[in-house]
Amino acid sequence: MRIEIEKIKCREIKSFESSNRDSDFWISKYIFNYANNSFDKGLLNQIEEIGNKLADSVNDLAANDSSNKRSSERKRSNAIAGVLAEYCWKNFLNSVSIETLVKETEYVDKSSQIDLILIKSKKTIEVRSSFPRNGVQFAICSPKYEFDILGPYSNSYKPNEPQKDFYLRTLFHVGSPIDFLTEFKNDNFIAYLTGGATWAMMVDENISKNKTLIPEDTISDIEKESLYRVVPFSKALDCSQIFKLIKD
Q1: What is the pLDDT of residues 60-99, one digit of tens each?
Q2: CB 73 within 8 A of CB 55
Q3: Single pTM value for the model
């Protein structure tokens, strides 16, 4: 596993000269080599095992039905990607700090999951992942189809009551969510730690908005569109900025 830092300048990319993002966006790339690195192989096998158990905990569909089998594979993919995303952010936040900042929380229920927690302040961090098939630059820079930092969904959204203190986003450039099941074991597979948002940003009407979607990392048996509070990447904090806020 190696870590690289990359600066994305949206409006200097020919395809995205009209991007809504007018400032530099720093991302961290976690690069894994399953075949030729014993540490990476052991780590990814462990993450796969945890993700499969998580998927099985909500997977009560019949395995002999083709559509249900696909749904089961999708839940496995989402769960493994979620565990990997959480690991990478935990590792990043702790590795760039003198002292250990965060730890993972115990999984109790998918409806109340808090991914990471700050050890001293007990502030909460939610990590969400997604699979942009057109690439990370597209997800961050596209003027029409930019991705978002996902916040709370509508039935839990209360402006005066923080749901989480920080929201973080990880992207995986794969052909489809199900392709992730095999591609995360390819040479030089990358988890992109893009950035995030604070609760204050989620309740700021000038920064956030409501968006109807089905999150790509859901592992629920009921996948339906819900109204979420989101911060578009054009207004989000990049990896460096969100780290500084979490650290302080």
Answers
A1: 544 444 455 557 888 899 999 999 999 999 999 998 778 8
A2: no
A3: 0.90
Tally of domains in the chain: 1
- For residue 202, is pLDDT > 80? yes
What 3 state SS string does the chain have? Answer: CEEEEEEECHHHCHHHCCCCCCCCEEEEEEEECCCCCHHHHHHHHHHHHHHHHHHHCCCCCCCCCHHHHHHHHHHHHHHHHHHHHHHHHHHHHHHCCCCCCEEECCCCCCCCCCCEEECCCCCEEEEEEECCCCCHHHHHHCCCCCCEEEEEEHHHCCCCCCCCCEEEEEECCCCCCCCHHHHCCCCCEEEEEEEEEEHHHHCCCCCCEEEEECCCCCCCCCCCCEEEEEEEHHHCEEHHHHHHHHHC
Domain that holds residue 208: 2-18+25-247
Phi, psi of 106 (to 5 degrees): -75, 135
CA distance 155 to 111: 12
79, 52 contact by CB (below 8 A): yes
Q: Is the dihedral of CA 187, 30, 72, 106 positive or negative?
A: positive
